[in-house]
Amino acid sequence: MANEIITRAVQRLATRGIHTEADIQSEIQTLLAGGELNLTADQAPKLEEQTADGTRRRIDIAICHCVIEVKKDLRNAAVRADGQEQLKGYLKTRQAQYGRRFVGILTDGVTWVLYDLVQNDEFVEISSLENAADADALLLWLEAILASETAVPPTPAEIEQRLGASSPAHLLDFRELSALYEAHREAPEVVLKRQLWAKLLKTAFGSDFEDDSDAFINHTLLVLTAEIIAHAVLGIDVSAAGPVAAEDLVTGREFDEAQIHGVVEADFFDWLVAVPGGATFVRTLADRVSRFDWSGVEHDVLKHLYESIIVQEMRAKLGEYYTPDWLADRVVNATVTDPLNQRVLDPSCGSGTFVFHAARAYLDAADTAGLGVGEAVDGLTSHVLGMDIHPVAVTLARVTYLLAIGPERLRHSERPAISVPIYLGDSLQWEQNRDLFTRDDAVSIATTADDLVGKGGGIIGDDDLVFPMSVLQDAAVFDRLVARMADLALDDSGTLHRTLITPVFKQFKIAEEDRTILGQTFATMRDLARSGRNHIWGYYVRNLIRPIWLALPENRVDVLVGNPPWLRYSKMTDAMKARYKALAKPRNLLTGGLGASGRDLSTLFVTRAVEMYLNPEGSFAFVMPHGTLTRLPHTGFRSGKWSSAQAGDITVSFGETWDLTKAPTGFPMVSCVISGSRTNLAVGMTKAVRKWHSTLRAPDATWQQAKSTFTISNGNVFQLNAGDDLPVSPYKRKFRQGAILVPRVLVTVEDAPASALGAGAGRRRVRSRRTSQEKEPWKYVSTLTGSVETEHVRRTYLGESIAPYRPLEPILSVLPLENDRLMRPSEIAENQGLSDWWTQAETAWESNKVQTDPSDLLTRIDYMSQLSSQLPIASQRVVYTKAGSALTAALVQDPTAVIDHKLYWAPVGSLAEGRYLVGILNSEVLLRRVTPLQNVGLFGPRDFDKNVFYVPFEAYDSSNADHAALVSIVERAEQVAANVTPGATADATRGAVRAALTGAGLTEEIEAAVARILPVVAEESESTDEVVLKPDIAGEVEARREVVGDDLEEADVEIDLDVEHDDTGVYLWGYLVTRRGVADSEYHSVGSSQVVSDPDVLQAKSLVSQVSDVIREAQEAGLQVRLFHYGVTERRFLEKVGGDAADLLAVATDLLEFVRGRFSSTDGFSLKTLAPLGGASWRTQGLDGESSAEWIAKARAGYEQAWLELLDYNEDDVRATLMLRRYLRS
Q1: What digits encode the pLDDT tens for the residues 180-201?
Q2: What residues does 122 pair with on adjacent strands?
Q3: Hey, which of 188-197, 252-261, 306-315, 638-647 has the most confident mean pLDDT?
Q4: Is the alpha carbon torsion for 1203, 1207, 1209, 1213 positive or negative?
Q5: Are 792 and 816 a contacting pair, CB within 8 Å?
Q6: I need a labelling partner for 314 at 20 to 30 A (CA). Which of 86, 935, 960, 1049 fits?
Q7: Residue 515 lies in a domain
Q8: Which domain holds residue 908?
Q9: Could you say which of 357, 390, 424 is where a domain stops?
Q10: pTM of the prediction?
Q11: Together in a domain, 545 and 571
Q12: pLDDT tens for residues 16-43?
């Protein structure tokens, strides 16, 4: 916290117009010299310092490597421009004088702008801050630039503030590194290293990986930072005054001299020290890293650094989600049962979380057994190994491995020479199609390969690098041999190959019969070196051969653990899809002709890892997508019966399975843990699971921190297996999914204003229908406009076009359809209006589609014949929604309309049959039976698809009395639904229709009729978690119902309310609107991160106005409304407003007061204690009522991410109130 003198200075600076420039300089000097920045004597700020360049120029304030130019008021454009020009000149002078980077700040005391002078004298703005009289925020911004503080604890928060993506330090580093890369990107070595980097990542991540310069630069920066941290963790001085040269920092010379190999070495990212200015950059970065106290660093700090620098959107595209510490701890604990005698491998080790816990388990066991440090560390490196195809992950994991060993052991006099066994390698062995084992006694590494990464992804080279199998037997010897060959390959003296390499053969005792092959390989390495693609090949070869070495029978491991890549089939390149199928089919991993969308790389990865790296009777445990447990495409995997041409039959016995649906993992989808062992007898995966339920708010916690929040119980899941003889309804064959009419902007339309001359006879003027749901890149595509022949503008039903028992207004689409078929391109050309439109659409499609997609737009919209199969269009069709929390179905009697893929459809033979189907599909009875069959998303059951027909109701029979009764009731339901006035949204209309049906007594009649029709099928029992919230009166279930009673009766529209405030008053209101029968609740926020006068009243008035509109609309529709909040705070602030707020309070219920009066709780009544019983969780780590004051302070200081986190926190609060209420009602 800033002291009083600094606080007053910052407050004075925050007021413009009353100071001279000299006054501002004086206040800034007070701020800088006030002690909070921990400046040393030689770092003290200097005012009016001469530039010493023969001119009379004076720098307003010089401090450290920063120049500060002060102006009276930067709102004046001319003043700002003058200041920028002066600052640019000062930076050029300083950099020329000192030969290193200087940065500049332009300020008037209120506005602070950071500038950098990069390559080609480009003067760029890096970061800015508005002084809102917040001394702490201004000091934090300045400290990140000056890097003056020392012994900073390397906590995740400090790392993000000082090195993270939004910090001035990172922005400066990224800008300078970008300039260095752009200046030297055509250098042969830089080109090669980026190509090899891209090849590996495209192999790992498929079509979602973009060979992007920013990603390469960020990865370079991350690896350099991690390598510098690796030195600092061991106490090596990496500061500017330290003894380690920049080149040694990135090549690991200090580690080699300490006989710690495989931590820092020449890799894809050391190109920097080979270009002018690169070494200076490394020194500056190392100096910044040196101000942290790395002696007590936590092992997962590098994970936080990675997640801060690589934006969430990019990590999501690549499937990069790190396993939480608590989960890795439990997986290792359950699987590694004899650490000193089991060899453990994580074949997709990421940043090394599983490896860390496996290493700690080994070292703890070694301590217990009384092993000395030397024996323990030596044994560890042969017992715990990791591998990953991501070069950044490998660097992070290597440092994590060191942290697991700990500085004390590493510095111990008994510690032997070690090589950290974390390898960059393709665990899956995608490239086995190149026949890596070219002979039984040799292995080949390609210097060119386009087969998996697609066009443009290959490496230029004529020959493979071939190594006899005999030299692979000892991994450490092989590493040293290849490293020595790579060093000698750089010799450009003209010495003969044989003269250089023969002494090496003698040193490593290479057999005569292997020397010819190795001699040819050495010659190839020299050729590569001569073309500028040099030392990287030694690094590349050593790492890529490691999977082959591990696959040798004598090197296989006893335990496999990890979190394999989750890459959906649809995200793979075409070459990867072909290779995936070639590998998956013989291993019994492809089930049926369909289901491609459900296929995932994770199951193939596990199968291959077991096949190649696991000993007979060895154990495995992997974190997997939840669908692995239940979905049809994974039937073969769950059988435990796999095979391959190379290994023959592969059988596993599956063991205990963990269902993590209710556990906080941070993954983008729900997950599970599977386990088993490699056996001679296959034992398939059962439906029995262990259900993990936690009240933990965020996933980032150790097991010691999290274990008290967990309840673990037995349960079952419903599995769909290809071989099961499940009874199905005859309607399963008749329903099809509608057409994939996307991108919407190219196909769906609305009427456009007519031109002055009109559209012409038989034509309709239309334009693209734009919505807020459009995704990149299509949201940026220009709106199409045209006059199209009327017969080609078709009414189209989307998911949102359907309410229970009635269709809503369809949208329009431009589609090249004849009466009974899809038109050919030549036929489209014969229709001028359609042709013009389709030409625009095809052009936009080709420009913006995924590069690996070979289809044209016409093929796209008829994927799997989902459009043409609707032709000729039936006059009566039943449609139902593809996904959601409630099934919605209706009859469509429009012989020209098209059905979109968000609906399933089937023609019906009569109106009565249609009503029979609609009645069943809309019923709650069917929904309850279908829910266990749905795939599970983060927010519960998701897609219905054709799972509805696994409830095997029979075909319509007009002679069946129950069928006829249902048809009659549905006819009345259609009449009621038709009379409901549509709401502002489809969800509102659906809610209104369901409310009207209930009010008319029809819902109860329909449910009873459908219950008589649906067959009785034995249901799987499922245990539930222990309830910590219990009624205060005696009894069990009935007591709970009595306690809840009608006081918590569900309303048609419910509003959940929450307020956030600090000492200055209210800064944020949030409310959640939930409508009966509508799948998704709507969250709204009212507030600002900026300080305003009288915030309590101002914010509340805006909230009251918005919520009153919601209430008024519902009441006018005859719907019941209730408002809920948790605690007295919301009521207290609303009472300050008076007026319309009284109407809100009249329908408000304090849920906390309700719970306290009726229940007892073993753990108190806080929302965060009780709401997780209903499945609630909070996304924002470390944010609660107390710490929110710090977050709003950050937001007011200009940190946008802090405000976004507060919005998430508020939304999670109101959703938690809703979920707790639903739990109480259950």
Answers
A1: 999 999 998 898 889 888 877 7
A2: 118
A3: 252-261
A4: positive
A5: yes
A6: 935
A7: yes
A8: 730-1013
A9: 424
A10: 0.66
A11: no
A12: 877 889 999 999 999 988 877 878 777 8
